[in-house]
Design brief:
The complex is a heterodimer of chains A (426) and B (533). Chain A is of the alpha/beta class. Chain A has three domains: 7-200 and 281-325, 3-Layer(aba) Sandwich (Rossmann fold), CATH 3.40.50.720; 208-276, Ubiquitin activating enzymes (Uba3). Chain: B, domain 2 (Arc Repressor Mutant, subunit A, Orthogonal Bundle); 341-425, Roll (Structural Genomics Hypothetical 15.5 Kd Protein In mrcA-pckA Intergenic Region, Chain A). Chain A has 14 helices and 13 strands. In chain B, a hairpin with a 4-residue loop joins strand 9 (517-521) and strand 10 (526-530). Chain B has 533 residues and is an alpha/beta fold. Classes of the chains: A alpha/beta (426), B alpha/beta (533). The complex binds zinc ion.
């Protein structure tokens, strides 16, 4: 039992968890401080950051609060939508439209006494290194690849070899339908998010000529409506996929095209699914993955048992299949590797073609990259004057600008790191 | 998202031709997985959960959110201070001393207004002691029990094994970081399966209209645009015909022949950018691979499956078995195609709109012909059977991927100690953890102190003296001795997700549930399956 009770606590409150914290198990590291010391650290000293208060985030917040973490911060930039309510269990119909971080924090504090949840309604990019430095660890439940890459790179950059507490374990979860994964990233020590970029599913992309000339599927008609027709008709209005009127317009335009080509199956739901790239999501998968993430957070914070090394993958469509493995660090990882990435390209390729490759290549995926060599600027996306000045280079061959074996540095405003390429020609 | 999947969604939601209503919007992200049919099944389900532990309420949370019809939470105990500390669906300190089920009920119900629920403050023991109680238990669509006492669990699993139509029982056990669960069911049909693989396109045995198209296609007479848009199905049918002519009517068999066949397909390409020929070469594997087998082995295995019978009752899967037997007849009928009924959905392929739509129409028409043939056979074979026409259509549509699982009574696996021992030799941690949880259940039911030594002693006495225990058994035994009654929040949440997931699969019959034990270790973070029939 906990010797001195903190505010809001009652005797035997942590009876279940204390069975773990009072004694080591056969697989517990000798550094484990069983008893009051570990409880004091967990309940009074540990400070965790939860990124995302959505499907995974709601679950993560509840699990952390019950596990005994009492100082929790949460960041989320979204507001609550009705389609969240089938799984984001801290929200009710009356909350639709309110910021997720605020509603979730309040709910947790009401339900689990003595837990302080500090919400921030905004972007992770709004916060600086000093902010991230205050946490013991970070648990991530995001649906955006971009945001994950940002926080991953930020936490890797934060590591100061002379300052052990600058290493913030990052626990990341993700789900899609009945599938999901949880992983533990020790920045600079183990494989990072960027190291495993190539494991991501490739989003379905329909060739523009199919959309324009030979549509066969309802999806092709929907893409035609959103990619080609919307910008042609609404020259001054950006497509807002959250606006039902916009979806309605796309739906009717896609339906008309489908009718013209005798294609069946354009529906409102499919239209929305295609243009918003909707990923199916259910409470149960989120519960499994969030629990796995929080279980790792608990084990890391307490040392009460060994933690995941370093990747847990789950597929629940046929029985329960899971695979636990160690994802290897990539030596040429632009975030944690230190070595340049070797890239072989055709001697005839233009800079424009190279940029296309950087956007598409599975292990790179950099949107709007800017390129330079140690001595010259090749192409810059911004500021406008620099873009204009470097634009003529887009048509030039890379081989005219970079020697065989030459280095090209790739940057993008969305990513807090540089990618270094070593170019060779075929 | 694959093409077949997107078409399923499209069909399931084809009623939605205008902006969706609030219910559809609320369930949008799950309807994309199990469609309106799965949702309807969920909404008509009634689930009984025994005990209002943290694990139990976590399971229910994940079933109330997607919208089951009704749940009953049964618990006769009062909320202890420790329950108030580890269960999110109790109102903290203020719940202490009140009934567990009653306290959890409103907090679960508020998750979804369209779900009905009740708290019953009886004990499992009390229920099982009367005929009325037993009958009541059998009235649910699914029963879930968490950490039930050994004796009660045995009684319950016996009770729910009596009749073929008894509800499935999910047995969940957990202690600290370790857990396992088992789904007891007689039979589980997966009637609307989801699969990423396109069913047979009849490339090796085309139906008449398809063969006609292939025969009438003369590559040399096509203009370049037409040539670049011949669907791969037609290219492969022609290539196969050509090959048969030169090889005594056989298709490619050896590695070399397959290579030659592909080279031949490629040789038909006249221009470098003809993607349809590239696609045909890539799809050539269909000809000798599993894709075009007349009857996939999983489906064939179901033909010889004896129907489950028991005196004085009808099997709730009777209709499904009638469909299976009709399918067998359909396949064996010398007048028929000698394979499963043709699919009506076509995967996307590199071709022009006109050809694709035409091809789609041909498949749909011929699939209609075979579907009618199937229905005639069904009527002839089972003239008195009343069967929902929608079920017949759904069966024919999904026939290429249907599955049927036969289950066993809870605990059957352990009655064959030799089989357990053999599995232990190559799945040490999974079997070891399961046996350790068995030993824990035994010790707790006798109110004995749980020590690592006692647990191991139990495991040894079960396996017999000559078995050498793998080291994982000791690791697991030490863990349960450390936390014999700990219902940890994260383990509870993990199981809450897992068990809800399996429940949804059982109810919707669209995905495949676990058969056998699923063992979970949240220290090394793995799950494993053992004891499948
Ligand atoms: Zn890395």
């Amino acid at each position: 039992m906990n010797g001195h009770l903190a505010a809001g606590d009652w005797d035997d409150r942590y009876h279940h968890i204390d069975q773990i914290l009072n004694n080591p198990g056969p697989r517990t590291d000798p550094s484990f401080m069983a008893g009051d010391e570990v409880k004091d650290f967990l309940r009074n000293k540990c400070k965790v950051l939860v990124i995302g208060a959505g499907g995974l985030g709601c679950e993560i917040l509840a699990n952390l609060a019950l596990s005994g973490f009492k100082d929790i911060h949460v960041i989320d930039m979204d507001t609550i939508d009705i389609s969240n309510l089938n799984r984001q269990f801290l929200f009710r119909p009356k909350d639709v439209g309110k910021p997720k971080a605020l509603v979730a924090a309040e709910f947790i504090m009401n339900r689990v006494p003595g837990v302080k949840v500090t919400p921030y309604y905004g972007k992770i990019q709004d916060k600086d290194d000093a902010y991230y430095m205050q946490f013991t660890l970070v648990v991530c439940g995001l649906d955006s690849v971009e945001a994950r890459r940002w926080i991953n790179a930020t936490l890797v950059n934060l590591v100061d070899p002379d300052l052990p507490e600058s290493l913030k374990p990052l626990i990341d979860g993700g789900t899609e339908g009945f599938k999901g994964q949880a992983r533990v990233i020790l920045p600079t020590v183990s494989s990072c998010y960027e190291c495993s970029l190539e494991m991501l599913n490739k989003p379905t992309a329909f060739p523009i000529c199919t959309i324009a000339n030979t549509p066969r599927l309802p999806e092709h008609c929907i893409e035609w409506a959103s990619v080609l027709e919307w910008p042609r008709v609404h020259t001054d209005k950006k497509l807002d996929t959250d606006d039902p009127e916009h979806i309605g317009w796309l739906f009717s335009v896609a339906s008309a095209r489908a009718k013209e080509f005798n294609i069946e199956g354009v529906t409102w739901s499919l239209t929305q699914g295609v243009v918003k790239n909707i990923i199916p999501a259910i409470a149960s998968t989120n519960a499994i993955i969030a629990a796995s993430c929080c279980n790792e957070a608990f084990k890391i914070a307490t040392s009460s048992a060994a933690f995941l090394n370093n990747y847990f993958m789950l597929i629940g469509t046929e029985g329960v299949y899971s695979y636990t493995f160690e994802h290897e660090k990539r030596k040429d990882c632009p975030v944690c590797g230190g070595e340049s990435l070797d890239l072989k390209i055709n001697k005839e390729w233009t800079v424009d073609r190279l940029i296309e490759l950087l956007v598409e290549k599975q292990d790179i995926q950099i949107k709007k990259p800017s390129l330079s060599t140690p001595t010259k600027q090749i192409y810059f996306q911004a500021p406008p004057q620099l873009e204009e000045a470097t634009r003529p280079n887009l048509e030039k061959k890379v081989s005219e600008l970079v020697d065989e074996g030459g280095e090209v540095t790739v940057t993008a405003s969305s990513l807090p790191f540089n990618l270094s390429l070593r170019i060779s020609y075929i | 998202m694959s093409v077949t999947e997107s078409q399923d969604i499209e069909q399931a939601t084809s009623a939605m031709h205008s902006a969706p209503d609030n219910k559809t919007r609320r369930y949008d992200r799950q309807l994309r997985l199990w469609a309106a049919s799965g949702q309807a099944a969920l909404e008509s389900s009634r689930i009984l959960v025994l005990s209002a532990s943290a694990t139990s309420t976590s399971i229910l949370k994940n079933l109330v959110l997607p919208g089951i019809g009704h749940f009953t939470l049964l618990d006769d105990e009062q909320v202890k201070p420790s329950d108030a500390g580890n269960n999110f669906f109790l109102d903290g300190f203020s719940s202490i001393g009140k009934n567990r089920a009653q306290e959890a009920l409103p907090l679960l119900k508020e998750l979804n207004d369209s779900v009905d629920g009740e708290a019953v403050t009886k004990s499992v023991k009390e229920l099982l002691s009367t005929d009325e109680g037993k009958k009541w238990i059998k009235g649910f669509s699914l029963v879930i029990a968490h950490n039930l006492k050994k004796g009660e669990l045995e009684q319950l699993s016996n009770l729910l094994w009596e009749d073929l139509n008894d509800p499935p029982l999910i047995v969940v056990r957990s202690a600290g970081f370790l857990a396992d669960f088992y789904i007891q069911f007689h039979e589980q049909c997966i009637i609307e399966p989801h699969s990423d693989t396109a069913p047979s396109l009849r490339i090796t045995k085309p139906f008449p209209a398809l063969q006609k198209w292939a025969d009438e296609t003369d590559f040399s007479k096509l203009d370049p645009t037409e040539h670049a848009h011949v669907p791969f199905v037609i290219i492969l049918i022609k290539a196969a015909d050509h090959w048969r002519k030169e090889h005594n009517g056989d298709l490619p068999k050896t590695y070399d022949e397959k290579k030659q066949f592909k080279a031949y397909v490629r040789s038909l390409q006249t221009k470098i950018d003809e993607e349809n020929f590239e696609e045909a070469e890539a799809q050539a594997v269909r000809i000798w691979g599993a894709a075009e087998t007349p009857v996939p082995s999983e489906v064939k295995a179901l033909f010889s499956l004896p129907s489950l019978t028991s005196p004085n009752q009808t099997d709730s899967n009777e209709a499904f078995h009638a469909l299976l037997q009709t399918l067998k007849k359909f396949v064996e009928d010398p007048e028929g195609p000698g394979r499963l009924p043709l699919t009506s959905t076509l995967p996307d392929m590199k071709t022009d709109t006109e050809s694709y739509v035409k091809l789609q129409k041909l498949y749909r028409e011929w699939s209609g012909v075979e579907s009618a043939r199937f229905k005639t056979l069904l009527q002839q074979t089972y003239p008195t059977l009343e069967i929902d026409p929608a079920m017949v259509d759904s069966f024919i549509k999904n026939v290429h991927h249907i599955r049927l699982l036969r289950g066993r009574k809870y605990g059957t696996w352990e009655t064959n100690v030799d089989s357990v021992k053999e599995t232990l030799s190559y799945m040490g941690k999974e079997v070891g953890t399961h046996l350790v949880l068995n030993a824990l259940e035994e010790l707790l039911s006798k109110d004995e102190e749980v020590t690592s030594e006692k647990v191991i002693e139990h495991v040894k006495s079960f396996l017999g003296p000559d078995v050498e225990l793998p080291e994982e058994v000791e690791a697991a035994a030490g863990e349960v001795a450390r936390a014999p009654t700990a219902d940890l929040p994260n383990t509870a949440a993990f199981l809450g997700g897992m068990i809800a997931q399996e429940s949804i699969k059982i109810i919707t019959k669209q995905y495949v549930p676990v058969n056998g034990y699923c063992v979970v270790d949240l220290i090394d973070s793995w799950t494993g399956n053992i004891g499948a029939p």
